[in-house]
Amino acid sequence: MLVREATDDDLPAIGPFFREIVADGETYAFPEDLDDAGVRAWWFAPAPGRTVVAVDDDGTVLGTAKMGPNRPGRGSHVGTASFMVSPAARGRGVGRALAEHVVACHLEQGYDGIQFSAVVETNTGAVALWRSLGFEVLATVPGAFDPRRHGKVGLHVMFLPLR
Amino acid sequence: MLVREATDDDLPAIGPFFREIVADGETYAFPEDLDDAGVRAWWFAPAPGRTVVAVDDDGTVLGTAKMGPNRPGRGSHVGTASFMVSPAARGRGVGRALAEHVVACHLEQGYDGIQFSAVVETNTGAVALWRSLGFEVLATVPGAFDPRRHGKVGLHVMFLPLR
Description:
The structure is a homodimer.
Chain A (H helix, E strand, L loop, with lengths): L1 E4 L5 H14 L11 H8 L6 E6 L5 E9 L8 E8 L8 H15 L4 E8 L3 H9 L3 E10 L7 E9 L2
Parallel strand pairs in A: 4-5
Antiparallel strand pairs in A: 1-2, 2-3, 3-4, 5-7, 6-7
């Protein structure tokens, strides 16, 4: 598996699983029904942010991550990131590979830490992965996510100090 | 003091104190040096968000607030807001008037709660005001704000449940 910079040529591969994951309604408070141009606007991070894809040996896109400063100006020394793994590629370590890449990028770029502001508390696989990388849950905003299939759940604010 | 909808005609009044407060560097992780068009893009919230101004009897703009959903999609039932009081109008209850207006708007619109994601912990006046309205500090992201005049300080995540 290779993690490389995403390009516009990856949009036709990203778009379908991006829409599938958002429509599934259990993990992301993102706009629904974005077309590929909308996915590009939402997911492709302007510099100094970056968007990457994980691809297999055939070049198939398995997942994607975006990263960049969590805030502008006097908050830009803390980074943030978001991750999407194609449902067809689950269980192959794609999320972990993307996450390790993102942490390494933040270290290289001298960030003080990484903040995730909206990790759905019932997304236990993701929460366990972030914890295994050293992230801690700082707080849980009660009921801040409205899943498609059950009652409202909290959004974790998670943080990994890098220095 | 009246709190009313902001219009483009208020930009020449908002712009100078917006830039002064951001450049002062103690309270907001916002982009610096925005011109009035940049302030408009950053501060004037698209529907269903709103931007309001507090004005005195002469029509002088004393402060402004923006509000709207904290997240799109499945997070849009929690609101958020930001506030700016003109330094020339401090100590006159402008922040409180704006905050009470914002809470009333959120109640009217049926939000579940209000989240502030980046309250600078050393901005003790603001923290005390939010606490007096019922907000609680859920967490403090360590060192996430880099003030102009001293070392890095935390950003509070504050929350007010509305139902």
